[in-house]
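Collaboration report, partner site 2.

Our partner group contributed sequences for two proteins of shared interest, and the home lab folded both. The records are reproduced in the order in which they were received, starting with the first partner submission.
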Amino acid sequence: MKLSPYGSGSLKINLNGIIVIVGNYGSGKTEVAVNLAMDQKKAGKAVRIADLDLVNPYFRTREAREILSRMGIDVVLPPRKYLQADLPVLSPLVSGMIRNPSELTIIDAGGDDVGATVLSSLADAFKGRTVQTLQVVNPFRPFTETIEGCLKIKDEIENASRLQVTGIVGNANLIDETTPEHILFGYEFVRRLCRESGLPLVFVAVMKRILDQIHEPPFECPLLVMERSLALPWMKQG
């Protein structure tokens, strides 16, 4: 097997330092960010995660703050009175966690270039620090169903955030309608995207219930095996 430069010999995810998670609206980046934090905590790392998603009112890291906190993961949120606000509110703790990062510090940014704009306000804190910016790609979402569309989103996020995307994360899914065939298609899609962009495929995210249905998984990269941690809007209403 060809090993990812981000993985160990057993193809486990092994990330350290400051990791910024970006992606287009609906890519599933927040679910990825939350599951990545839990995965790396279980691997024995000290993990902090900050919620800078000020765009999406439903899928936010803050929705999973209780389970994250119970695991001993430090969750940095805007002040309590702004938790449900769609306002550009930044806690001073976010700048502080960038200047003094944990073993693994994950920043969940908002979707598209609009959500990534808030990252540009942290330029001073990022200055002189090594930052890995990972673009989560779901080829079953509008605007990222083609390689060209993914590259366009990448350029827009980079311009808005003033950060360079350093790696790709595959997260092919159609929520509850996802099949093994969707996962395998998505894997080949992000491999092509990486060849076109010259960026590494850092890992592929797969829900455990789907992975269990794939016979002899072909993945030549680390896997993030996920469980749903964020309630869908219609589930909340129910």
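Second partner submission, folded after the first:
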Amino acid sequence: MLDATASALRTVGTESEPAPRAAGGGEKLIETLLLLCAVLSIITTIGVLAVLLFETVSFFTKVSFSQFFADAKWTPLFANKHFGIWPLVSGTLLTSVIAISVALPLGLMAAIYLSEFAGPRTRAFVKPTLELLAGVPTIVYGYFALVFLTPILQAFMPQVEAFNALSPGLIMGIMIMPMISSLSEDALHAVPNELREGAYGLGASKLSTIFRVVVPAAKSGVVAAVTLAVSRAIGETMIVTIAGGAQPNFTFDPRGAVETMTAFIISVSKGDTPTGTIEYQTIFAVGSMLFLMTFTMNFITQRLLRSSRGKGL
């Protein structure tokens, strides 16, 4: 009797479950297109890395590692050639540090305000308005830094040169601030309200809840936003080309002229340098160094995030 009942129930259950519908021709086409897009992106990445690696290896067959890493002068376009990369690295790091020093506190505070204090109408108006800063062409930012911000800085600091690292660094900070604020606000807004209510129930104030509960809970999103912003600052070209001075000085004084790696690449890529020459191959050597810097930064960030998750932070 029991066996017959179980058999009947299995039969009813089998009949009630709909059979999986076979994918139609349209779904298969969409799946194939999505696969092709993914494969195309992988092939493009491999192609870029292959070209970069090939030209870089060719460069180092003519220039030794000691000339590249142990020299403090960068004059590959002059008669007396020097290939020390550190002036370009120092200029890139200097402007990027200034930019992130401006963008991080302003962007994070703006994100906290929009997520925790602003009303729905204020948030709906302020956030898109703030994001408009990211849509301004970088060449406009460059000339703004040169003709507007630099004279103001010279009025307060006469030692600031006409071309300097401070002015483009500050403007780059304004440029990447919307990236930090927008992405961080999304991460903060996604924190469950239960965490806030639990903190309030334990007697925490609003500020304590924000900085000790909400921000740590959204740490992954905030760190990702900062990482993207730093990568954007390191890869910025037009602002530092126009307002930085294009002078490869090995210095960390923001009042003087500097040249970043991206500024050098664009200065050599104008078409005047013959293909295959050592001057032409410096573009790829500098590009490889830039790639290694951003890759290392992203790798360290990911490891730190995984470590913090493993510790339950």
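Feedback sent to the partner group on the second submission included the following. The mean pLDDT is 86. The CA atoms of residues 116 and 210 lie 8 Å apart.
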